Structures are given as structure tokens and as C-alpha cells.
Amino acid sequence: MIRWLVFLILTAALAVVGASVARAPGQVTFEWQGYHVETTAGVVILALIGLVIVLFVLDRLLVIIGQARRKLSGGGRERRQRRGYEALSRGLVAVAAGDASTAGKQARRAASLLDNRPLTMLLSAQAAQLQGDDRAAADFFGTLRTMEGTQFLGLRGLLNQAMKREDWGQALSLAEEAHRLNPKSEWVVSTLFDLQKQLGRWRDAEATFDEAVKLKLIPEGHIARERAEIVAGQSEMGDGSERLRLAAKAFKADPSYTPAAVRYVELLLTEGDFGRAASTVERAWEHDPEPELAELYWRARRCDDAGKKLDAAKRLAKRNPENLESRIVLAAAALEARAWSEARAALAPAAGADAVPRVCRLMAALEEGEHGDLAAARTWLMRAAGDEAPAAPPTPPQAANDAQAAEAEATQGATAEAPQPAPAR
After folding, report:
1. How large is the average pLDDT for residues 48-65?
2. Is Transmembrane helix one of the keywords (predicted)?
3. CA torsion sign, 249 to 255 to 260 to 264?
4. Mean pLDDT across the chain, nearest whole number?
């Protein structure tokens, strides 16, 4: 409005100037294309002023038309984007609901309306995954990996795909790249740590473990176990005295971690250090009794006969007397030494209705070895197999014989005291 007001004022001013010029003396003559024109200077000036006014009006009209066209195209673009975002929202909802067909349809619609924006690419990749088209999903994630600002998103998708198909080498490579892009990501650090352990990259895993501890990704109660696992893995990769030193370090980090204890004891036995090997097993037995430790203990104590094995078993069981594994080890050694009473005493607390199969098998061996009772042994073996669970333990053969003898004596006594019938005449 102001522009037009200024234009009218300028036009009036030019008209006044033109009128003044028209009264001014002067003659203008020119020839063009065979025409001879003669006029006054005022007329020429007025013609020029008119031409300027016409050009100005045409310019304003062109500007107005251009603005109108941009508004019309902008409105269309806004409607197009609105429809694209609606398709994107519906597609993401379909992905969350597991509706592969709807997700694929909306992904294609969003891609055609939004010109391959990152969210559209992500929706297309997820829709392809739902439809089982891993190759297409990999293509979309690969594109995201090359786009500015979406590299990490693309890497994560490719990493998940590699882990899904158990391509651990590729997964580790992608996790390392993702870690370089975002070293503070909790998901990346945890995934990288797990992959390094799985592939035996123990040195790298140790560095990642320190990062995970700083980020508080590992619970306080699991730190010792994780550290022991890493150092034990390094021991397996080492050689000479280094592997023994690392095994000792792993066991010290967490004596309850059986693989570290087993590794350390095996190396000590190889070195001929039987005393330290035996004491290491005893210490580990206090934390977590395992059959594998018992087998190493027999070697460490050099149990070359049943009597020595039983003595060693008693010593080991004292380290954790209430543990079921201690009772089983002691009972097995007692059976081998034919110490029936000691075997029964060790098994009795564990031979109830909820006895585990190993206890049932030991009870079967005890019944057969001590009493020769094959029926009772068979019953225990059936319990071990889960075929039968009697409410009460079988009666020992000696007790059954005593009961039968008592019943026979009572019958004989009753017969002697009863009146005899008179002889027939």
C-alpha cells in the first residue's frame, strides 16, 4: 500500500514536471525506418516519462505474479510434506506393531513424498527387515552410513544384521567403527566388549572393560568376575611363565570363578607345584565346589589308592561341609574305599524325596555294595532316571531279615501256647 502511494506521488510530481517541460521551447527531429518525425522537446520528455512508468508497472506485475506462483507451489510442497510425514508416522506405528505389509506400503509412500530423508530411509530399512528382505535393509542402512549425520544410525543397523546372521568378524569391525564415532555410547561399549570376549580379543577387551567400568555399565558385583575372565583369557593366549602369572592374577581377582581356578591349578600341576595346586583347589572349593576341581585335587594330593583318596576327600569336604558337592565327593571316595558307613552318613541328608540323580546313583551303588540288595539299587536307579520316586527309602536287607525272624518266632510261640486238639479215638 505504501509503495503504491509513493508511486502515485511520484507520478503526480512527474506530471507537473512534464507540463513544465512541455511549455519549454525547443525542437526535436529524427528519422527512423523511412519516417521523419518533428516534435517539441517537451513531448519527447513526456514520452520518456511515460515509458518509465509503464516499465515500472510491468515490473511490479511480474513481481506479484512470481510471488503468487511461489505461494501456490509452496502450498503444494507443504501439502506434499504433510502427506509424507503422515505416511512416515503410520509406517513407524506399523513397524512397532509388526505389520510388515502396512510398514512397507507406508515406507514407499513416504519415500516418494519426502525425497529420501533419513527417517524415511530408516523406515524403509525396518520395513524390509520385517518382510525378511535383509539385502534391501542392508542397502538402506548402507546409505544411512554414508549420509552426513546418520553414519551411526546406519552402522547400528548393519551391526545388528551382522550379529543376527552370526557374522562375528564383521560385527566386531562395525562395532569398532561405531565406537570411533561415538565412544561414549553405552550400547556401543557393551556390544564391543561382548564381541571382543567372544572372539578372544582379550587385550582389547581389557581396555573396553575399563571404559565400561567408568561408564558404570557393569554392576559392582560383576566387576571381579569380568576381570578374572579377561585375565584368564589372556593367560590362555600367553606362553611360558607369563601364562602362569596371568592365571594367578585371574584367580586372585575372583577365587569363585572356576575356569580361572582350573586354569591356575592345571598350570601349577604342570610345573610340579603340587602343594600350591592343592591349596588353590581348597580355596576355590570354599567359594564354588565343582567336580572338575575335585579331579584336580586328587592329582594334587597324588591319591594313588582308595584310602588316600578318601582322606583327601574328607579334607576337601571340610572346606565347605554343607554343600551338596562336598557330600557327593566324600560319598564317592568312601564307596571306592568300601567305607559303607561313611558313605551313608555323607549321603543321608541329601537322599530325601528331592534327591538329585547323582545322589540316587550313589545310593544305588551303596545298597548294592553294602548289602547286595539289587532291588533297592534298582529302585534308586529308577529314581535317578525319573521313573519312580518312592515316599520312603527302601528297607535294608538285614532289617527285613530281622523282621522275618521275629515274625517266625512269634508264630512258633503262639503255636506252642495254643491248646492241642485231642487225638482221635
Report:
1. 74
2. yes
3. positive
4. 80
The distance of Cα 124 from the centroid of its chain, to the nearest Å, equals: 24
Torsion of CA 53, 55, 58, 63, to 10 degrees: -110
For CA atoms 226, 228, 230, 233, the dihedral sign is negative
Phi and psi torsions of 73, nearest 5°:
-70, -35
Q: At what angle do helices 223-237 and 186-198 cross, to 10 degrees?
A: 40
Which set of grid coordinates corresponds to residue 28?
526535436
Model pTM score = 0.64
* CB distance 314 to 288 below 8 Å: no
**Virtual torsion, Cα 323, 327, 333, 338, nearest 10 deg:** 170
> How far, in Å, CA of 169 to CA of 350, rounded?
47
| C-alpha triplet 273, 278, 279: angle, nearest 5° | 105
Q: Residues 60-75: pLDDT tens digits?
A: 777 777 666 665 554 4
* Cell numbers given for 123: 523406515
- Look up residue 222 and give its DSSP letter: G
What is the pLDDT at residue 9?
A: 77
Model confidence at 200: pLDDT above 70: yes
Tens-place pLDDT, residues 338-387: 999 999 999 999 999 899 999 999 999 999 999 999 999 999 999 999 85
| Spatial distance between the Cα atoms of 11 and 49, rounded to a whole number of angstroms | 9
**Which residues, including other chains, have CB under 8 Å from residue 131's CB and lie 6 or more apart?**
100, 101, 103, 104
Grid cell of 141 as nine digits = 542402512
DSSP notation for 328-366: HHHHHHHHHTT-HHHHHHHHGGG-STT--HHHHHHHHHH
Q: How would DSSP label each residue in 14-57?
A: HHHHHHHHHTS--EEEEEETTEEEEEEHHHHHHHHHHHHHHHHH
Alpha helices by DSSP H, listed for 115-201, are: 118-130, 134-146, 151-164, 168-181, 186-198
121 vs 261: CA distance, rounded Å? 51
Rounded to a whole number of angstroms, the CA Rg of the chain reads 48
